[in-house]
Structure formats: C-alpha cells, structure tokens
Amino acid sequence: MWLTRPFCFLTITLREEGVYHLESVDLQQQIMTIIDELGKASAKAQNLSAPITSASRMQSNRHVVYILKDSSGRPAGKGAIIGFIKVGYKKLFVLDDREAHNEVEPLCILDFYIHESVQRHGHGRELFQYMLQKERVEPHQLAIDRPSQKLLKFLNKHYNLETTVPQVNNFVIFEGFFAHQHPPARKLPPKRAEGDIKPYSSSDREFLKVAVEPPWPLNRAPRRATPPAHPPPRSSSLGNSPERGPLRPFVPEQELLRSLRLCPPHPTARLLLAADPGGSPAQRRRTSSLPRSEESRY
Ligand SMILES: CC(=O)SCCNC(=O)CCNC(=O)[C@H](O)C(C)(C)COP(=O)(O)OP(=O)(O)OC[C@H]1O[C@@H](n2cnc3c(N)ncnc32)[C@H](O)[C@@H]1OP(=O)(O)O
C-alpha cells in the first residue's frame, strides 16, 4: 500500500556518545518517555508480562530504535507516533541445515510494533524497509527474536520469507541466512549440549519466562527443545489477551511531541536522526567497548 501522508522516521540509540550531549535535556527526556510508552504498548500487544523495550535498557546497550511518525496527524499538526522497530547485533550460535553450530553476529529484530488502529495499512512495511535501508541488510540476513504469528505472516507476505532453519534457541532465521554472512559464519565443532550455547544465544525475551511461568503444578508441561518452524503465538504461553476496544492514542502527544518535529531536521534533532548519528552500522558495531556477550540484552 502506498502511503500518502507525510511520514518521517526517527532513529534513536541512547548509548551513542552524541546523544548524551544533546543541547536539550528536555528533548532527551521526552524521547525516553516515548520509548517507554512504545515499549509498554508493544508488550501489551504481544501479551508480554513486561516491556522488552525501555529507555533505561537502551542506555545499557547499542540497540537502535526506528520510530515512524505521521507528521500530518492531529492534534494541530503535531503528529502521531505510529510504531517502532528495535534492532541490534547479537552474537548467536545458530544451526545450519546440517545441524552444525555456527557463530554469527547478525542484525536481530528485537521488538516491532505498529499501533493497533493502523495495523495492516502498510506502515509496518514502510518502517521495516527504512530500517533495512539504514542498516544495509537484506531480510534473509536477519535473525528474529521469537517472532509473533503476525510478524511471521508479515515477513512471508512482504519478503517471501517462509522456510525457517530450525534452531534450539528462540531466534528464527530463514533459508538464505548462511549465504550472506559477512564475515563468513565460523564453523564450530559439531553439535554441543544446548546448555553450552545458551549464554550467547539468549533472547531479549528470556527474562520474561521467569515472570510468566505458572506455579507448580501448572508448570509441568514438557519443554520443546526445538521451536517449531512457526512458533506458537505468544498467547499460547501467556494466555489470551482480554478483548479490548480501540485504544486511545498511546502517547500523550501534546506533551511528548512538542520537541519532536524532526522533519525536516533541526539542529537539536540532528544527532538523533538516521543521518548517521554514530557512523555507519559497521562503525557502530566496532565502537563497542564491552565484549558482546557481556552487554545487557535489553
Ligand atoms: C521480534 C518481534 O518483534 S515479534 C513481535 C511483532 N509485533 C507484534 O506482533 C505486535 C502486533 N503487531 C503489529 O504491531 C503489526 O501487525 C506488525 C508490526 C507485525 C506489522 O505491521 P503492519 O503495519 O500491520 O504491517 P503491514 O500493514 O505493512 O503488512 C500487513 C501484513 O502483515 C501481516 N499482519 C499484520 N497484522 C496481522 C494480523 N492481525 N493477522 C495476520 N497477519 C497480520 C499480514 O501479512 C498482513 O498482510 P494482509 O493484511 O494482506 O494479511
């Protein structure tokens, strides 16, 4: 679907050095509030017990959030935030189609949300395309952190991603993943015990398991070692979300968007925009001071 209204994108990464030197502390505060609100809305939409995206978590990692904003929205031209996608590079051990472990560090889709009132209008694709372009990756190069059914359908429809390579962690990769690893995927000795690979391959959503596990004896269902090609919807482990009516705009726009008219960019916003706040994606990866495995996963 072609988007006719003026839309713009914000690219935010809170750990990049430049962002800490924003001229306006107020702007940074507002952006942090927006990220918190988006994280909560996404968690609610996915029936998660807690947000996996928050400003405080983003300050301790190098994840990047792309936000889609409708610049022409109401009230009074202040615009409305439509959704976001959070991505980040992670070291993972993934199985190839011969079940050999490969150490890779792909770009991972960690969280993705479009407001309920405008889903299936093409906004998700618009945002996803923008992210692909900025990160300079192809869809089949991505690893997806426990995708919802909606996201699996989305990837199938827009990018023909259907055949998955079965994994023992929560990440989903698709056929073609190994053809495009740069640098080439490192082969490891054949299959090790699952326990050995967990520290590297933990999902951002791992901590949620603790929160959602029902008390004994309700927690006795056997665990699957290998997620199915199409993992069950999150509601299967978390319960169905209650029916609810249309949501009100989830961000108090008047307050939060006062300083967020970022199209076209103004000086204060420049550091936040996709026009390379911290260099190319490759440069951003290289600036990490911590070993990847020690970085916070949130
Ligand atoms: C790693 C993770 O982040 S997993 C979590 C992913 N996020 C969620 O599940 C939160 C709730 N869902 C959403 O926020 C959105 O539906 C997104 C982000 C998945 C997709 O954004 P949208 O703006 O709806 O996508 P867009 O309009 O570009 O594409 C629509 C396609 O997405 C898929 N899709 C979107 N919503 C649904 C739905 N309710 N049921 C089934 N498929 C859906 C379909 O393939 C759909 O095409 P169709 O309408 O022809 O069937």
UniProtKB/TrEMBL annotation:
Primary subcellular site in the record, as a coarse category: cytoplasm
- Report whether Membrane shows up as a keyword of the record: yes
**Protein location:** Cytoplasm; Membrane, Clathrin-coated pit; Cell junction, Focal adhesion; Cell projection, Axon
> What InterPro entries does the record point to?
Acyl_CoA_acyltransferase (IPR016181), Atat (IPR038746), GNAT_ATAT (IPR007965)
Tell me the HAMAP family matching this sequence. mec17 (MF_03130)
Which family does the record claim for this protein? Answer: Belongs to the acetyltransferase ATAT1 family.
Q: What is the name attached to this protein's record?
A: Alpha-tubulin N-acetyltransferase 1
Which species is listed as the source? Macaca mulatta
